[in-house]
Specification:
The protein is of the alpha/beta class and 443 residues long. The protein has 13 helices and 11 strands. The chain has a 7-stranded mixed β-sheet, with helices on both faces. A two-stranded antiparallel ribbon has the order 4-5. A two-stranded antiparallel ribbon has the order 8-10. Strand 6, helix 9 and strand 7 form a beta-alpha-beta unit. The chain is globular, with a radius of gyration of 22 Å.
């Protein structure tokens, strides 16, 4: 009787017709030529440590075609150079970027990052005598609380006018990078941490907290973030690919979502806090071995502007366990938006779900509080004065994680001798092989 009297929520957060779907979309559809090159960007990032293992350098070397792509920015190189400048008391404390307010009075916002590099090197008995010692070591060259890294490539020759952002996946030897995957409590995708940052428009859309926080830093770090580099290096109207493998694949999806929503909002609203108006990048993403970045509502929101132009390609191996993570934990609360009207079944679903929804939200809030605290002190953010961060936590209650984008399945083979490597089917080099075998150009 009590549940029958429950108030059924109005379904006002249905996704409206998207604005700028085609204007912000690159040429759609799966392309083997694109996938073939983009998996090499992922090999460059994700197999960096393996290139030092005896017998594996050739297998793990990236084969980026220099006639098609030129590297124009490497966050690993920037971090390495800055560490030695900081160690030599020559670190530039002025914050780069168009929104810089000038000197920061000697405060080095990245001090915690530099301290981590020093202590990590000491613990691993790694001598630091030149920037290459850091740039060449994946456990030292990341930035932000979860030690992420990324590359920007510029197309040359027939790819003139195209750019590609490549995002690194998990570095298992580095605790912060591995911890990012485990912080899978849901957080609201709309206006994440700030009114200026949204991964979705639907009110019920939630995203994986660890991926969302890491993406926030990856995008907005004042020295090493994607946004300030795009402003310097990528002309408005360019085709921009966002690619990644593993953890980097989930983050690539969130970067794609952020850029679309940020550019759309800048064009249709009176405010432009992040300087995205008139950028009009034409977006497309390739995600290899994508863990689930958000819930069903996020996936639906993402599809509203990527499905028709077919600009979000996800390639997953059926024997790879990572695309099945995080495990989906659904409840009747995830069905609330599916029963519209005020008939008795809708009231029962809403009433029964209320208690579990409150409990799940409470657990998420506690975990989110710890996540936010652990992220402090690693840097300073681009356009910080316009971010207007929320002063309270905005955790979500939906743990119904699902893939986002058009999923293409490749099939691993159990006959391959993978020894004791339990993640053999997950490696970027394995994806390179199976994509070529199964999704390559036909003769």
């Amino acid at each position: 009787m009590a549940t029958a009297c429950a108030t059924v929520p109005e379904h006002s957060d249905r996704i409206p017709a998207s604005v700028y779907v085609d204007e912000f979309a690159a040429q759609g559809g799966y392309s083997y030529e694109e996938a073939q090159q983009f998996i090499e960007f992922c090999v460059e990032l994700d197999d960096q440590d393996d290139r030092g293992v005896a017998g594996r350098p050739a297998e793990t070397a990236a084969a980026v075609d220099a006639n098609k792509w030129r590297l124009v920015y490497d966050s690993r190189e920037a971090v390495a150079k800055d560490y030695f400048a900081y160690a030599g008391n020559a670190f530039d404390t002025r914050m780069s970027g168009s929104s810089s307010a000038g000197p920061d009075d000697g405060v080095v916002f990245w001090r915690r990052m530099f301290s981590r590099i020093k202590s990590e090197a000491a613990a691993r008995h790694i001598g630091l005598s030149a920037p290459g010692d850091i740039q060449g070591n994946a456990s030292l060259n990341g930035f932000g609380p979860w030690q992420n890294a990324w590359l920007l490539y510029k197309g040359v020759g027939g790819n003139e006018g195209r750019y590609a952002v490549a995002i690194r996946g998990t570095v298992f030897e580095t605790e912060p990078s591995a911890v990012e995957n485990g912080l899978f409590q849901p957080v609201e995708g709309h206006e994440f941490l700030s009114r200026a940052v949204s991964f979705a428009r639907a009110g019920k859309a939630t995203v994986h907290s660890g991926f969302a926080h890491a993406t926030f830093t990856l995008l907005l770090d004042q020295r090493y973030g994607i946004l300030p580099v795009l402003e310097r290096e990528v002309p408005p109207g360019s085709t921009l690919y966002v690619v990644g493998h593993s953890q980097g694949a989930a983050m690539a999806t969130l970067v794609h979502a952020f850029l679309f929503n940020g550019m759309r909002d800048a064009e249709v609203s009176g405010s432009d806090p992040l300087g995205l108006r008139n950028r009009r990048y034409r977006l497309k993403s390739y995600a290899f071995a994508q863990p689930k970045p958000g819930n069903y509502a996020f996936s639906a929101d993402f599809a509203s502007y990527t499905q028709r132009p077919d600009t979000a390609i996800v390639i997953n191996n059926d024997l790879d366990p990572v695309p099945q993570l995080p495990l989906t934990l659904q409840s009747t609360a995830d069905l609330e938006g599916d029963f519209q009207g005020k008939f008795i079944l809708a009231r029962v679903v809403y009433g029964v779900s209320a208690c579990g929804k409150w409990l799940r939200s409470g657990i998420g809030r506690v975990l989110e509080w710890r996540t936010v605290r652990s992220a402090r002190g690693y840097g300073h953010f681009y356009h910080y004065g316009q971010l207007l961060p929320w002063q309270h936590l905005r955790s979500g209650s939906s743990w119904g994680f699902t893939p986002a984008g058009r999923v293409i399945i490749v099939y691993g083979t159990q006959q391959v001798d993978q020894g004791k490597d339990v993640f053999f089917q997950h490696h970027a080099t394995t994806y390179r092989t199976v994509v070529a075998q199964q999704l390559g150009a036909r003769e």
